[in-house]
Structures are given as structure tokens and as C-alpha cells.
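Lecture notes, unit on protein representations.

Consider one protein chain, 104 amino acids long.
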Amino acid sequence: MERIAFAMRLKPGCAGEYKARHDRIWPELKAAFGAAGIYDYSIFFDEESLDLFAVQKRVDSGHPAALIGSGLMKQWWAHMEDLMETNPDGSPVRRDLVEVFRLD
């Protein structure tokens, strides 16, 4: 099992819509996450900074790179682009985070 954490940022005034879109996440995208080995994915929001903090758990044999390059993922990015800071390719600006403490 591998745990990945990263941060992203919302645009001001977009928190409600961001949550609403995730409440209606596409079933085929959920399935694609599972196919990529991601079995647990949480996103937390800091209202003060507008930062999103995401944690994914995935099996060691997963293939997340295939998900990132998929047309489905690019469609989701386009769906979310008006709410988030994004790169020129439409992907969210993402900052990988380093784990400094863990209590199991």
C-alpha cells in the first residue's frame, strides 16, 4: 500500500460548487480510480487559505499514470477548471506533500 498526499488550491468563492461537483462524481471516474489501484481518496479544504489537501491510498501494483493520461481524467479536469488553479494542460496545479509523521 502506498499513501500519496498533495495540495491544490481553489479559486475564491468556489468551495460550494467544488463540493457539489464531487458529491456528483461520475461513476465511470470512480471506477477508473479503482482500476488505477486507488482504493481510498479523501480531499480536505482549508477555508482560510483555499487550499485543498488530498490523500490517496493505492495498491502497490496500481497504475495511476494511466489514469492521469486518460481522456476521462482530462474531461474531469475540464469540468473542474473554472474552480481551481490549473496548469496549461488543464490539470490542477498540484504540490506534492512529504509525510513527516504517521501513527498507525
